[in-house]
Amino acid sequence: MKTKILSALAAAAIAAAATATAQAAVRPQATHSSALLARVNVAASEFKFVLNKKTARRGVVVFKVTNVGKISHDFEISGRKTKMLSHGQSATLRVTFLRKGHYPYKCTVPGHAIAGMKGVFTIT
Ligand SMILES: [Cu+2]
């Protein structure tokens, strides 16, 4: 009787250990995908944006926007925007893109987008 209980406990312990191993094997992938992060440098001037890359993978993208022009500009994408930046100022904008697609960006100062301060950022 005692032996039966002991072997049942041993079997349960082995099953629990096997489950723990299976979970441990799955976990690293989950942390890997959430760690994806792209950095994009954006230079704003009259009247254009120059980006060091125009595409990124889905996930978090950190835009570092620097005003290298003479007058004030900002940078808006996917409903988020930086503060107004005067000459020489910079700001970072952290945006999470959950879907692939083409995301327009622009300067919101009246007349600037139509003068050339706009473009499209692609998420793949
Ligand atoms: Cu502008």
- Number of domain units: 2
The fourth-level CATH homologous superfamily of the largest domain is Cupredoxins -  blue copper proteins
Sum up the overall morphology in one term: globular
The name of the CATH architecture of the largest domain is: Sandwich
At the third CATH level, what is the topology name of the largest domain?
Answer: Immunoglobulin-like
Class of secondary structure makeup: alpha+beta
Architecture blueprint of SSEs:
Elements lengths: L1 H33 L2 E9 L2 E4 L3 E2 L2 E9 L8 E2 L2 E2 L8 E8 L3 E6 L11 E6 L1
Structure explained in plain terms:
This protein has 124 residues and is α+β, with helices and mostly antiparallel strands. The chain has 2 domains: 1-35; 37-123, Immunoglobulin-like, CATH 2.60.40.420. It contains 1 helix and 9 strands, in the order αβββββββββ. The protein has a 5-stranded mixed beta sheet, with no helix packed on it. A 4-stranded mixed beta sheet has the order 2-1-4-7, with no helix packed on it. The longest helix has 33 residues, at 2-34. It is globular, with a radius of gyration of 25 Å. The model is unreliable at 5-35 (pLDDT under 50). The structure holds copper (II) ion. Copper (II) ion (CU) binds at residues 73, 107, 109, 112, 117.
